Every structure is written in C-alpha cells, then in structure tokens.
Amino acid sequence: MARIDLIKVSKTLTDRKRGAGDAAPHDGRRTAFSLCDLNLSVRHGETMVILGPSGCGKTTLLKIIAGLLPLDTGEVRYDGLDVRDVAPGDRRIGMVFQNYALYPHFESRTNVLSYFLFRKKTPELDALAKAKYQRTSDLMGVDLAHLLDRKPTSLSGGEKQRVALGRCITRDAALFLVDEPFANLDQALREKYRVNLKALLRQFSITTVYVTHDHNEALILADRLAIMNCGRIEQVGTFQEIYDDPQNVFVASFLNLNIAAPPLNLIDGRQLPERLGLGDVLLGVRPEHAQAVHGASAEGTVGVRGVVTSALRLPTSDATSVAARVGDQDVYARAAAEGAPDIGDVVWLTFRRYYLFDKTTGMRVRRHIGAEHA
C-alpha cells in the first residue's frame, strides 16, 4: 500500500489550433492549464474516485501520478518521498485503462506475467515469477483461472479487466490507477463488474485512484471522492459528506444521487419574496428537500408561491415529483402522492434544507438545515 500526496501540482498542455477545414495548415498553438495548483491526498489502502466532467483533467492527473507526464510545478509524493526523478517502471504502479493494454498475441497467462516478460532471464526471476503467478491465481480464484489459456481477442470486457487486474497484482503493485475501464460496456455489464471490482479492491486493500464521470460508479466504488473541475479539485470527502455539504455551486449542481433525477434548483434570490431577506444570492435546494403543498393543506403555509407546470408520480416512493414556475424558472419539488397537485394548480414551496451561494464566486455563504422553511 502507498499514501499519495499531490502538492500544488500544475501542468500546462499545448495543442495546435487549426484554421477552417481539416486540411488547413496549423496557424498557432493553444495553451491551456490541464491541472492548476492541485492538491490531493490519498490514504493508505483507500479507493479515491476522481469524479468530474469530460475534459476536466482526470486522465492527465493519473498520468502525472504514474510519471507518464512531467509536471510543470509542484510535487508528487509516495509515502512522503518526492518521486519526480523515479521512473514509471520503478513506482510499483498497476494501471488499468479503458483499453486494458493487453498483448493480443499472448495468452492471458503470459499477460498476467508480462512484468517479468522482458526482464533478463535468471533462475531467481523464474522462481519469483512462478511464485507471484501462483499467489495471484490463489487470490483471484476461479474468476481468473478459467481465462488463463485464452487470448484477449476471445475475452469479454469484464474478463479483460480481470486479466489486467491480475497483472497488477502479480507485480505487487502498491498503487492502482484505473481510468474508466467500463466505459465501453453496456449498463448491465457495468453494474456487474463494478461490484466485482469493489470486492477485489476490498480484498487486496491496495491504494487506488479511480477516474470516472459516472456518478453511480463513484457511489459504488469510492471510499472518498474528489470532485474535479477545470483542472482543480473542488472538494474531497465521502459521497454523503459532499452531497450534504457542498462547498460551491459547481459541486452542489454536479453531484446527484441519481443522474436521471431533476437537478439542483438554483434560484435567483431576487426572484423570491422580499420578506425572506435573501438579497442578491443564489438559493440552491435539492428537489427532495423542497415540498410543494396546495389546497386546504396549504393553509397557513409560509413559503414561495408557484404554479405547477408538470407532475409525475414516482413509482418507487409515496410521492409525486412536481415542477412549479417561480419567476421565470421551474423549481422541482416533492408533493404527497395522495391529492397531488395538477398542472396549473397554485402551490406553496417550503424548503427543509437549502444553501445560499455568492453569485460572483459561486462559493457557499450559508447553509440551512432544520424544520421546513422558506
């Protein structure tokens, strides 16, 4: 196992900028910060999931940790040791990327032992390779054993993943770096192999940095999450910690319990009643923390007035999801399934948990948790 610390890491990537048309000559270079003053600590034996949108720098971060890209400034430390001058092959890293990087002309057995394949043959090395191979086979059991005589071209995506993991374990990796290995699989297979991978990571307790843009994958695999955006780590914590206590608008809007669920509501404070005294801020409230009431049940309610624009019964709960027009936007909320409002009904919205964000910086300036409150 290893502890990984990234300290004020920056990396600038430069690509060429073309003129109109694919065949046009290069007319300059475009420079962009891929990583900017990034700090992150990964504990011994934990699975740290880097979650962020495409293009935010997740894969670049893995390559920096692996030593495949030089950093511009900052430090990468393994167990307190600065590894700037340590070659990638000497960092005891096991890498599992989307294409698995298996040798297609070798059987899986040889792929598992590929760490030893190109080293000078000695009796001691042969003995070590056999011992490592046996240990890996024993640890992974039937999940690996029946694949060893087959070539990668005959393996499914999940089977290739197990061979790639076996290769990492055989070389006694102290750190796994995993980059969206399930991206090309269908949903059913992704669900299955996520669970299998989680079990393996728990069994071996190997420090793992796992990159994904998939919220469900992050929820299943992560001990802790690092939310990444535009080359920066925005917030680190468990899924629940970050979901309940987002530090800024991006984190609150990006992290969702279910990507199919309505997004975080962000309401301009100036659109809400003056009596609330919110001022020039953004109010953020998750749909499950907003309650819509109407008719007789709304009598005496102090809340925000809205008009229902959609209503959908949630089959897995005793509630209805509604959207109510407030000012010039829809606010998503929950309503009791029995006697739920219809489109066009006036409702009153109350919020039992909400966040206030600075409109300029996006940083949270206040959090309210408690009884239902407008």
Strand content: 35-45%
> Which class best fits the helix and strand makeup?
alpha+beta
- Total number of β-strand segments? 18
Shape: elongated
Annotated CATH topology of the largest domain: Rossmann fold
Poorly predicted segments: 18-26
CATH superfamily of the largest domain: P-loop containing nucleotide triphosphate hydrolases
What is the rounded distance between the termini? 49 Å
Q: Roughly how many Å is the radius of gyration?
A: 26 Å
Helix content: 10-25%
In words, what does this structure look like?
The structure is a single chain. The protein has 374 residues and is of the alpha+beta class. The chain folds into 2 domains: 4-14 and 31-254, P-loop containing nucleotide triphosphate hydrolases (Rossmann fold), CATH 3.40.50; 265-373, Nucleic acid-binding proteins (OB fold (Dihydrolipoamide Acetyltransferase, E2P)). It is 24% helix and 36% strand. It contains 10 helices and 18 strands. It has helices spanning 58-66, 108-112, 114-117, 123-140, 142-145, 157-170, 187-204, 215-221, 239-244, 249-254, and strands at residues 4-18, 26-42, 47-51, 73-78, 81-82, 93-96, 175-179, 207-212, 224-229, 232-237, 265-268, 281-285, 290-293, 304-314, 319-326, 329-336, 346-358, 364-373. Strand 4 (73-78) and strand 5 (81-82) form a beta hairpin. The chain is elongated. The model is unreliable at 18-26 (pLDDT under 50).
